[in-house]
Amino acid sequence: MSSLFSVLSSGRLRMFFSLCAVLSLSACAGPVTSAPQAGRAEIQQETLRQQALVFERFVSDQGRLFQLSYPLLRANAEFCRPKTTPMLGLTAWHLAALNRAWQPAAQNSYGLTNRLTLSAVAKNSPAARAGLRGGDVLIALNGATLPQGANALKTADKILRSGGMRQLEIVFERNGRAGTAVLQPVEGCDYPVVLDNNSSAINAYADGKQIVVAKGIVRFAENDNELAMVIAHELGHSAMRHVDKIRQNASVGMLGGLAIDTLLGAAGVSTGGQVAQMGGNMAVMQYSIPFEQEADYVGMYFLERGGYSAANVANFWRRMGAENAQSISNRSTHPTSVERFLAIERTYAEISAKKRAGQALVPNMQKR
């Protein structure tokens, strides 16, 4: 006897299953109250308002990172050489540089246009001393008129870098009136600090080009000193060239593993390159924890040199242990939160002793 599935055509079979699903859903229990619902126009309006709040929070967090990072990048330039850049202590933006979804909020909340506009000015920076303010519209740099739109930021950065440490003349507009300011750039570490607004992880990292701070760690840090410590730690990775060293170690490890792969292959054993990959991973892991410890140590000096107080910042790691219990004992790639707390406390004692003795605040280097 034919089964039901062999009798029904594919179209009727889909209809049969759809009918079964409808009959099943009709037997489900639903709400018994009549809750008020918003109309389409209200939903759209509230959507725009919440998107504006997201953007305003992003601008606030990114501005905070900029203000905290400027003195660190400025005060520790000697450790970053040759990767330094002339700094003015300002950031600029325009409408075309933003995600299209954020452009309405930028226009409504900040009056932003496609003209290059200062978004923030760091305290005690050349820009601040010259009297520039957030909201000033940049018209020309060293006599070169700045374009509007997509190429504005790239053009301004090119003019700044090409001028090196020479004085820079800025023509700007404020409240419809033109003004002129002359700025003397200062040397700073060329590792811009940016916010990852899409990540709520308690995390930050350096990739050798920039320092990325996740939104989650901005929320987790209890004060500016703690957040500055996070930035200083990542600056420690950058200044000590850890990214380059990791790549070098991986290459050396992979070459050693490749030699073994080749020998095994000559003996008729196919490894598929697994020994080379394993060698690279082992070489990277060999200094993973020491590099983190060095970044913590150097970062504490960078913090104090940047004008922050390193007192009590170690408590960040106690709270990290309470937030993530695995960090108390897990040291697979990083020191434990216990080790980091104790090492940072000892580093602070070392720095304090040097300050009392009037010694230079530079990390102790290993004797070779």
Please provide a written account of the structure.
- This protein has 368 residues and is α+β, with helices and mostly antiparallel strands.
- The protein folds into two domains: 84-189, PDZ domain (Pdz3 Domain), CATH 2.30.42.10; 193-356, no CATH class.
- 52% of the residues lie in helices and 13% in strands.
- The chain contains 14 helices and eleven strands.
- The protein has helices at 4-7, 10-26, 40-75, 77-80, 103-110, 126-129, 152-163, 215-220, 224-239, 242-266, 274-286, 288-305, 315-323, 337-356; strands spanning 84-87, 90-93, 117-121, 137-141, 144-145, 168-174, 177-183, 186-189, 193-196, 204-206, 211-214.
- The strands form four sheets. A four-stranded antiparallel sheet has the order 5-4-6-7. It has a three-stranded mixed sheet with strand order 9-11-10.
- A hairpin with a 4-residue loop joins strand 10 and strand 11 (211-214).
- Helix 3 crosses helix 9 and helix 9 crosses helix 12.
- The longest helix is centred in the first third of the chain and has 36 residues, at 40-75.
- The chain is flat, with a radius of gyration of 28 Å.
- Mean pLDDT is 85; it is low at 1-8, 252-261 and 279-284.
